[in-house]
Predict the structure of C-type cytochrome.
Amino acid sequence: MFDTMTFTKVLGGFAGAFLVFLLGKFVAEKLYHAEVAGHHDGEVVQGYLIETASDEGGQEEEGGPTFEEVFASADPGKGERVFNKCKACHKLEAGENSTGPYLYNVVGREVDTATGYQYSGALEEVADVWSPENLNAFLENPQGYAPGTSMGFAGLNKVEDRADVIAYLATFSD
């Protein structure tokens, strides 16, 4: 069954497949990586740079409305629906803390002053008062705005949702 010709064909097939694999790896390395001229140790950098949106600039997309423009026409009724995401951790009654502090009279209130709630201290480092602008920045990305905050919410991406929920919270003020 196994004669020398069959053994040679099988061994040649494996060797050929291995050579094709090595050739493919060599071509891929040449396409996607380039050695940096003037550097030793064979430092390798990516050959093709894919441009992405920069992190610099405003929070809203270019050409989009600013928070102040959206907040001026915010709808507290829509904000009540958006607030349903917040109800799991926050209450609107004064003094009733839950997982998070109560949000009664939060717009315009000093940061970290909800009675009976233990804050992490991260908010005091970034803001003094919960102005609509500070609330907007915090609700967009809580961890990015105040690193170390105990709020585990991912944030509200749409500026309209943030403006509506802040307008809704403003209706619960003295």
Remarks:
- The two ends are 95 Å apart (CA to CA).
- The chain has six helices and two strands.
